[in-house]
TrEMBL record:
InterPro entries: Beta-grasp_dom_sf (IPR012675), Mopterin_synth/thiamin_S_b (IPR016155), Sulfur_Carrier/Prot_Modifier (IPR052045), ThiS/MoaD-like (IPR003749). It comes from the Bacteria. This is MoaD/ThiS family protein. Pfam families: ThiS. CDD domains: Ubl_CysO_like (cd17074).
């Protein structure tokens, strides 16, 4: 099962600069574990193991343009040909 994962600039050091990589898994959790097996350390930047292996607070993940927090979170099922986008949340600014 091939799933395209779009990588934000901040995490591209884990993927040797690649903007997108392929992975596999029946769920997002399995996909992130698969990615970590080839791109060591990336899963730790996305998943908070100290918080029940949930997505980190300031990381947004989209499955085919839908926020997975409104689906099944890290347990969201995946299908062949899906597209997953990882985006760090942006905060701050000036008054």
């Amino acid at each position: 099962m091939a799933i395209e994962v779009r990588i934000p600039t901040i995490l591209r050091s884990y993927t040797d600069g690649a903007k997108a990589v392929e992975g596999s898994g029946a769920t997002l959790a399995e996909l992130f574990a698969d990615l970590d097996s080839r791109h060591a350390g990336i899963q730790e930047r996305i998943v908070d193991k100290d918080n029940g292996s949930q997505l980190r607070r300031f990381v947004n993940v989209y499955l085919n343009d839908e926020d997975v927090r409104f689906l099944e979170g890290i347990a969201t099922p995946l299908s062949d040909g899906d597209s997953v986008t990882i985006l760090p949340a942006v905060a701050g600014g000036m008054r």
